[in-house]
C-alpha cells in the first residue's frame, strides 16, 4: 500500500490508483478475516485522502476531487462486497459443516437404533437406501438398491407380503406398514418392520419415503417372555391341581363307584334264572356313561397338567364354565357355598384356549370360595353369569358374598406378588390378567356401592367373539 501511495503522491503518472487499492482490498479478503479486511480498507482510504491532501494542498482541482471521491467510493463498495462475500462463504461453510454433522449424527443414530431409511419412486421403481438399510438387508454399502435384491433376502414364506407392498407402492396407493422376516445368506433370520408414506412433488410425481427397523431383538425378547409366561402359567396350574387333589379324587371316584355299583347290578340281572336283558342293557348303558364321565375328568386334568402352547379356537363359553365348576364342586360342598349359574343360552363362540380359560375360571372360583370362608351358614353364595355386552364381546362375572376387597387393595389387585391373603403368593390374579389380555379381553374388579346391603366383590372379564376364517 505504501508503494501505491508513493506512486499516487510523487509520480507524475495520472492513472487509476483507486483500482490498485481495490486490488489490495480484494487480496486482503483471501488473507485475513473481517477485521483484517476492515483495517486494510481503512488504510487504503486514509492513504488515498492523505495523497490528495499532499498533492493538492495549494490549489483546488475539481477533476482531482472527482477522482478522489470515485476512488473512495470504489474502495468502500469493494469492502462492502468483500465483507458480504466473506459472510456468505462463512455461512455456507457453517451449513456444510452442520450438514456433515447432521449426516454423521443421522448415520450414528441409525446404526444405534438399527433403523435405516429408503426411498422408492413410482412407477419406475428407482430406489435409494441409507447405509444402515443396506446393512440390515445384508448388502455391501456400494451395492445399488433394487426391489429384486430386497426380495432375494426376504424369507420365502414372507415374499408374498413384500411383493404385495411393492405392487401397492408402484400404484402409489396409501401408506405401507408391514412386518416380515429376512433370511441372510449365512442362515441368520432377521425380523424387520417397514413403514413408508407417499409424497408428491410439484409435477405430481410419487415417491415413497420410509424407515426400515431391525426388530429382531424385540421379537426374540417377546418370544422369550411368551415362553416364560407359558411356563409360569403351567406351574400355577400344577400348584392349583395340588390344591384341588381332594376334589379331583372325588370327581373320579364318583363315576368309578357308579361303574362298580352298576356292574354288580348287571351281574345280578344276568344271573337270574331268566336273565333280565333289558335291565342288564340299562345298567351297561349307565356304566358307559360313568366311564365317559371319568374319562372326561381325567382328560381335563391331563390337559391342565400338560405344558403346551395356547391353541385359540372357537369355544362354547358356557361349557367351559360348567367344566370348571365340576372341578371345584367338592370345594363348594365342603365350604357350604351355594352356586348360582346365570348362563345366557346360545352365546356366540368365544375365541380362546380351553385350558387357559379353565385355569382362569378355577382360580377365580377358588378365590371366591376362600373369600367366603368366614360367612355364616347359608350366607355363602357364589354367582357366575355369562352374557354378551353392549360392545359385542362376551362378558363373564363371578360374584361372592364375602367381606369384599379393601378399597386400598383394589388398584394393586392384579400386581405380581401382591396378595390380600396371608399365605398368598400373589401370582394367581396377575396370571389371570395376562391370559385374558392375551386373548384380547380385559379383566377388572367391581365392588358393591357403599350403600348396598350386599357385601362381597365381583370380578368381571370380557373375551372377543370367535370370528371364523
Please describe the structure with a list of short key phrases separated by commas or semicolons.
alpha+beta, 5-stranded antiparallel sheet, EC 2.7.13.3, PAS-assoc_C, His_kinase_dom, kinase, histidine kinase
Q: How do the strands and helices of this protein lay out in sequence?
A:
Layout lengths: L1 H9 L6 H15 L2 H22 L6 H52 L1 E8 L4 E3 L1 H7 L9 H6 L6 H12 L5 E8 L5 E12 L5 E9 L1 H28 L1 H27 L5 H29 L7 E3 L1 H11 L1 H6 L3 E6 L6 E3 L1 H18 L9 E8 L5 E7 L27 H11 L4 E4 L11 E6 L6
Parallel strand pairs: 7-9
Antiparallel strand pairs: 1-2, 1-5, 3-4, 4-5, 6-8, 9-10, 10-12, 11-12
Question: Could you give a short description of this structure?
Answer:
It contains 14 helices and twelve strands. With 469 residues, it is an alpha+beta fold.
What does this structure look like?
By secondary structure, the protein is α+β, with helices and mostly antiparallel strands. It is built from 14 helices and twelve strands. The mean pLDDT is 78.
User: Looking at the structure, what is the overall shape?
Assistant: elongated
Order of helices and strands: HHHHEEHHHEEEHHHEHHEEHEEHEE
Biggest sheet overview: 5 strands, antiparallel
Secondary structure class reads alpha+beta
Total DSSP helices: 14
Radius of gyration: 44 Å
Strand order in the sheet with the most strands: 2-1-5-4-3
- The residue fraction in helices comes out at 40-55%
What's the overall average pLDDT, rounded?
Answer: 78
Segments where pLDDT lies below 50 for 5+ residues? none
Number of strands: 12
Strand content: 15-25%
* Terminal CA distance: 92 Å
Amino acid at each position: 500500500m505504501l508503494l501505491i501511495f508513493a506512486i499516487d503522491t510523487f509520480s507524475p503518472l495520472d492513472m487509476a490508483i483507486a483500482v490498485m487499492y481495490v486490488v489490495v482490498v480484494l487480496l486482503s479478503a483471501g488473507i485475513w478475516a473481517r477485521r483484517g479486511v476492515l483495517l486494510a480498507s481503512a488504510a487504503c482510504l486514509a492513504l488515498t485522502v492523505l495523497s490528495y491532501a499532499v498533492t493538492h494542498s495549494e490549489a483546488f482541482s475539481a477533476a482531482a476531487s472527482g477522482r478522489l471521491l470515485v476512488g473512495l467510493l470504489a474502495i468502500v463498495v469493494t469492502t462492502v462486497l468483500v465483507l458480504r462475500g466473506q459472510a456468505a462463504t462463512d455461512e455456507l461453510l457453517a451449513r456444510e459443516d452442520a450438514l456433515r454433522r447432521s449426516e454423521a449424527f443421522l448415520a450414528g443414530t441409525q446404526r444405534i437404533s438399527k433403523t435405516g431409511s429408503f426411498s422408492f419412486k413410482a412407477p419406475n421403481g428407482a430406489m435409494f437406501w441409507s447405509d444402515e438399510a443396506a446393512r440390515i438387508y445384508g448388502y455391501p454399502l456400494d451395492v445399488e438398491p433394487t426391489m429384486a435384491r430386497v426380495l432375494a433376502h426376504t424369507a420365502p414364506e414372507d415374499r408374498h407380503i413384500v411383493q404385495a407392498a411393492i405392487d401397492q407402492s408402484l400404484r402409489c396407493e396409501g401408506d405401507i406398514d408391514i412386518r416380515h422376516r429376512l433370511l441372510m445368506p449365512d442362515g441368520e433370520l432377521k425380523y424387520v418392520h417397514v413403514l413408508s408414506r407417499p409424497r408428491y412433488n410439484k409435477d405430481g410425481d410419487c415417491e415413497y419415503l420410509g424407515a426400515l427397523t431391525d426388530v429382531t431383538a424385540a421379537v426374540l425378547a417377546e418370544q422369550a417372555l411368551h415362553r416364560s409366561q407359558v411356563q409360569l402359567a403351567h406351574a400355577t396350574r400344577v400348584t392349583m391341581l395340588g390344591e384341588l387333589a381332594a376334589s379331583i379324587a372325588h370327581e373320579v371316584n364318583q363315576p368309578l363307584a357308579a361303574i362298580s355299583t352298576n356292574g354288580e347290578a348287571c351281574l345280578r340281572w344276568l344271573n337270574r334264572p331268566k336273565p333280565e336283558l333289558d335291565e342288564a342293557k340299562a345298567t351297561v348303558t349307565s356304566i358307559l356313561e360313568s366311564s365317559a364321565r371319568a374319562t372326561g375328568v381325567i382328560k381335563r386334568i391331563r390337559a391342565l397338567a400338560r405344558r403346551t402352547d395356547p391353541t385359540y379356537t372357537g369355544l362354547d363359553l358356557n361349557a367351559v364354565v360348567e367344566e370348571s365348576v365340576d372341578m371345584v364342586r367338592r370345594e363348594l360342598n365342603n365350604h357350604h357355598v351355594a352356586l348360582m349359574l346365570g348362563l345366557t343360552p346360545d352365546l356366540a363362540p368365544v375365541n380362546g384356549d380351553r385350558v387357559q380359560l379353565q385355569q382362569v375360571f378355577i382360580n377365580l372360583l377358588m378365590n371366591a370360595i376362600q373369600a367366603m370362608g368366614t360367612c355364616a351358614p347359608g350366607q355363602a353364595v357364589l354367582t357366575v353369569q355369562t352374557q354378551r355386552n353392549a360392545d359385542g364381546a362376551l362378558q363373564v362375572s363371578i360374584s361372592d358374598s364375602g367381606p369384599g376387597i379393601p378399597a386400598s387393595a383394589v388398584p394393586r389387585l392384579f400386581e405380581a406378588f401382591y396378595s390380600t391373603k396371608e399365605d398368598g403368593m400373589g401370582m394367581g390374579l396377575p396370571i389371570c390378567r395376562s391370559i385374558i389380555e392375551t386373548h384380547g379381553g380385559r379383566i377388572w374388579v367391581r365392588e358393591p356401592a357403599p350403600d348396598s346391603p350386599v357385601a362381597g366383590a365381583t370380578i368381571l372379564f370380557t373375551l372377543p367373539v370367535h370370528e371364523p376364517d
